[in-house]
What we know:
Blueprint: H1 7-16, E1 21-27, E2 45-52, H2 57-65, H3 74-89, E3 93-95, H4 105-113, E4 116-117, E5 123-124, E6 132-140, E7 173-174, E8 177-178, H5 180-188, H6 193-198, H7 201-205, H8 216-227
Antiparallel strand pairs: 1-2, 2-6, 3-6, 4-5, 7-8
Protein name: 4Fe-4S dicluster domain-containing protein
Amino acid sequence: MMVARGLVEEIAAALAAQGLIPRGGFRFAGDEAAPTGASGGAAISVLLVGQAGVAPWSHFQHWLERQHLPIVNPLDTWSREVIGTVAKNFGARAVSPSDRPYLPFQQWAMRAEGLKPSPLGILMHPKYGLWHAYRAALLFEDEIALPVADAAIHLCDACVEKPCLKSCPVDAYSGQGFAHEACLDHVRGPHGSPCRIGGCLDRNACPYGTSYRYPPEAQAFHMAAFAKL
């Protein structure tokens, strides 16, 4: 069954009220072990939901100010609430990158938008650079009309200097991967205030998508969540 064309546009309008956007999608292959949709049947189509830049930040902050009790993971909670409402209104099941068991969100994103990982592991977007995120996926038990993703230019291939690998004082990112403990110790330690206040120095050193860079307060929020400060 093909759902009427224009559904993605309607979903986009609903998401825009919270600063969120559709982030591409695809149809699961017939032999693929797809997750379930809203009624428990196998999903046929998936539409990713996320952000470009800091557009959702003010909406999230206004929501957070209205909460009367502390919330352990407020951004995840907000995302589930607002995207869950959109999913329900359009007959889909919303799943989150932090749901257990984990779903292959990065692989889905690469498939949906044709992106590749940067040296930092974050997918490099040809317009947004490293300043974007995926907040959920909408799972449909019908085939929906989705835009076809063009092959995206991978900006990292043209970046010779790789400043994203030269700005961290503890060399957290390298060809050997991410040195999680070294990064965590530094951020929590006496010399980690630049990272705590303004975000990851390696990420901020990337020359692409700078007009979408998160403001310091948003970066500090994410860094505090990473370090559990």
